[in-house]
Design a protein that fits this description.
The structure is a single chain. This protein is of the alpha+beta class. The protein has two domains: 33 residues; 106 residues, Tetrahydropterin Synthase, Chain A (2-Layer Sandwich). 43% of the residues lie in helices and 23% in strands. It has four helices and four strands, in the order αβββαααβ. Strands 1, 2, 3 and 4 form a four-stranded antiparallel sheet that branches.
Length: 154
Amino acid sequence: MDKKVIIIISVVGVVLLLTILGAVAAVFFFMNQAPPEPVDPNRRPEEIVTVALTTTLMANVLDESGDVHVLRIHPAFELNAESDGIDILNATTFPLMEIRIRDAILTLASTYTYEMLLAPGAHSRVAIDIKDTINKLFDTDVIFGVIWQEFLVQ
C-alpha cells in the first residue's frame, strides 16, 4: 500500500478512537452528577413586590337555607420578582390587568357558601384559591401570596 493511504487510515482511526473515548467520558461525567435540588414552592422569595387592587370587591354568597349574605374583600398581592412571569404581571402592568383579576376573583368568590367562609382558616383557604386562580389565569407563578386589606362576611 501507498504511504499516503496508511497515513489517512491511521488518522481516521485515531479520530474515531478519540471520538468514542470522548463520548464515553461525557456519558460518565453526566451520569455521576448529583440531581438538582428540588425547588421548594413555599420558599419566600428574596425580592417581593406588593400591589393591591384599587377597589374593594363584594360578592353575594348563599347559606345552606338559601339566604343571601355578602362577602366583602380587598386583597393585595405579593409578587415574586424572581419569577419569569414578572414581565406579565408587575407593578406597571397590574392596573391594566386589574379588570381580569377582579373578574376572576368575583367568579371564584361566588362558588363559596356562607358556612365555608365562616369556617376556621377560611381566609387562608380563600387566599390560596385566589393566588392559584390568578396564577392560572396568566399561566405563571408570579403571585406568591395574598394579603388581606379587608375580609368581611356579613
